[in-house]
Amino acid sequence: MQALQLDGIKQPLVLTEVATPAPGPGEVLVRLRAAALNHRDVWIQKGQYAGLKFPSILGSDGAGVVAALGEGADATLLGQSVLINPGQNWGDNPKAQAKSFTILGLPHQGTFAEYVRVPAEKVHPLPAHLSFEQAAALPLGGVTAYRTLFTRAGLQAGEKVLITGVGGGVAILTLQMAVAAGAEVWVTSGSADKLARAQALGARGGANYTDDSWAADLVRQAGGHFDVIVDSAAGSGFGALLDAAAPGGRIVFYGGTLGPIPQVPPAKIFWKQLSILGSTMGTDEDFAALLRFVAEHRLVPIVDEVFPLAEGEAAMRRLAEGQQFGKIVLRIEG
């Protein structure tokens, strides 16, 4: 089969002929039709991820058709169009993943290929209203957004929500889900175009986070402070999130692209009775609930651009530049 192979740190993805995997007991072989990129793939390529090994086939998100079954796999899966849950071995504690938890695409070979083998319980019927490309844009970002909003923050209809850094896949999916759940949503971005596009998806308003007064401006826009704040940056801007949060509010992080949080004033947290929460990926139950939510609300992930598999390195460069609005997807012909 053809696959995009990464041979070392800071090396380009190269289309290579490799052996087609065979499904083991309890596994299925999926003939992929589409795969989506995540920032995780960029960090691995840069060498900024734990457990690196080479050569490696990256890719956590994929959708396709079950082409073969391993011993003991459900025979009715053969020929089904499916979406893959990329989380592996969450463990028995729904509150946090086990040390054995992994994500498809490292250490196991991922979805930037014509075929991938996965445990049979990790494939789900393709949402009927989505194309392969749209469905592939959902798994990792979707389960992260769902767990952040609902499992961790306990979002309720009518609450005010702030989503920072809108434009990436997780932030946009968080926006779409919060709007569908009946929340009032505001966003930040460094791009006026991304703010306008977010408002077209249902955001009530937005602010440019490069403006010193962005937090106060958004509180005025919203007519009050925010019950839920979803952030992936952390860093020195954390103080502005404390100021924007409502008493009893919940601030949830699913990333930390700007690094450690300096000089946190404890009084702003305890006096406002704030909850500071972390979240990443999700349980199998979160993933199943995500798919029910997507089907109920007919949500369609936003796809920024579709590249053929052979142009995977160009797709990685677009993601690394951070100019995308939505998910970048690889189309896998065959």
Structure description:
The strands form four sheets. Strands 3, 4, 5, 8, 9, 16 and 17 form a seven-stranded mixed β-sheet that branches. The protein has a six-stranded parallel β-sheet with strand order 12-11-10-13-14-15, sandwiched between helices. A two-stranded antiparallel sheet has the order 1-2. With 334 residues, the protein is of the alpha/beta class. The protein has helices at 39-46, 132-136, 139-152, 169-180, 192-200, 214-222, 238-244, 266-270, 284-297, 312-321; strands at residues 2-5, 14-17, 27-36, 61-69, 81-84, 87-88, 102-103, 115-119, 123-125, 160-163, 184-189, 205-208, 226-231, 245-253, 275-278, 303-308, 327-331. The chain folds into two domains: 2-138 and 301-331, Quinone Oxidoreductase, Chain A, domain 1 (Alpha-Beta Complex); 143-278, Rossmann fold, CATH 3.40.50. Helices cover 28% and strands 26% of the residues. The radius of gyration is 20 Å and the shape is globular.
